[in-house]
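Box 3.1. Reading complex inputs
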Amino acid sequence: MKSGSNLEKVIASGKPAVTAELGPPMSADAHEVVKKAGILKGFCDAANITDCQTAVVRISSIAAAALAFQNGLEPVVQMTCRDRNRIAIQADLLGAAALGLKNCLCLAGDHQKFSAAGKLKGHPGAKNVYDLDTCQLVGVLKKMRDEGKQEGGDALEVAPRFFIGASWTPMADPVDFRPINLMKKVNAGADFIQTQGIYDIEGFRSQMEKIRNMGLHERTAILGGIIVPKSAMMLKYMDSSVAGVSVPKSLIDRMNKAKEAAGEDKKKARELQEQEGIRITVELIHQVLETPGVKGVHIQAIEWESAIEGIVKAAGLYPRPTFD
Amino acid sequence: MIMGSQKPIDEIWAMVKDFNRVLVFGCNTCVAVCHAGGEKEAETIASLVRMRAQQEGRTMEVKHLGVMRHCEPEYFEPVMDEVKKYDLILSTACGVGVNFLSDRTGTIPVFPGINTSFFGSVEAPGFFKELCAGCGNCIVHLTGGLCPIARCSKTLMNGPCGGTNKGKCEVSNEIDCIWYLIVERMKKLGTLEKLSEIQPPRNWATSRDGGPRRISLEHLREYEEKEEKAQATGGKKQ
Ligand code: SF4
Ligand code: SF4
């Protein structure tokens, strides 16, 4: 075992792994983290704790991860390259390891300009860092763990033992470079990969075929990303605006139908779409898990953590494996 | 070339309004090409300031002047006596010029008349684009001659982030994703496999992060010193 994390154990057991996501609040409200941890606990093997996703200031990933951990949920710390240089990243990760956190997902991070959206003012004028990029960050974590050295070369008496993850957007431009992109992250030391949300199963499967031909599926554990759709509007938005995500028309049509079935009743329209969204999610989970080379799913129910229990149960992925 | 853009006149007015004798000092090299701070633009700014002064009932002497370059003494030394007659110099050179003058004007303040923006190209008349960030350690032989430091919004070194959308950067659909262009170009050059190599963390000390930078060409400096000495000894003989 590299880290001995629960996620690593599930993957090693050969059973399909399930990760979920926990978005920390935009205030010092620890209770919110504890509440969400309670909702997810038992229904996933680990939950990603986002690191100021879309550059919006929230409780830091490590602090929220520590809270989740104290409350019985195994966290995956997310670490972006946007906000910290290599000094801060390593210092924070030493701290995370000292707190008992064992999984870390390396990300570039959304650009700060995304923080100003809708009603939010955000911090679009912030200075970004990008001292390291994702590949380099993965390499730094591996060096700390396997060589017991800081990036600069100084020795670590106690090395942080992380199960190292990275993200992958299989279908983003330039599509024929994406397999190389994954290969670089695996070569750098990524033990597991969580993909961007998949709706276009055919597209994903054709990329996975290339990945299998490169043998990458045996060197890292690929968890297919599933973003739980809530409404027809959300699916349309993701199809048109989210990089690397395309949504088949048939899925949008299904959601539209669910919405129309409610007539003028807005509350009912929401409920019917949510139900259809969960059905779609469960189908996607099966299709992703049937794809050769896939070792699990990463289910993101954005600001809808309560949906996870039903999804995991309906997908036949409950109960989650336990180890003593 | 160094590119800049004009500051709003309100901002300029706020800087100059308490001075009596103001020189708007243009630079006729880079910033003239991008129509921000050449002698012509200095003239326009001077007349805008005069008009504003009149509107506000302020008596002010505002003149303009231009030289070829603000960043080498030989160009502005001939006009230094003239320049020193004013109690404020509003330099429309790039930031280099503003600093260079400030180091040399004693008690006369030098304020910036433009916003210095980037090193760029003249893509088309009136359209300039940032192409290099002067990072001090050029690596574009690894990236098809296209710069991921200046042209990727996240200075990524190992390929595109997940935000590339239809060839555009996640920051704006008006910005090309440089990694998309790097991949396409390297495909054309037949060198795509080079991108499989992992580029290790960079040493940013050659960039601004190592503190203000300088270049000293010792051989040239030695040569010049020798020349000066030779001239001095030659002078004695005469
Ligand atoms: S790598 Fe550095 S020196 Fe080379 S073009 Fe880019 S910013 Fe300029
Ligand atoms: S979209 Fe392209 S240019 Fe923009 S940050 Fe990502 S890799 Fe860089």
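In summary: The mean pLDDT of chain A is 97.
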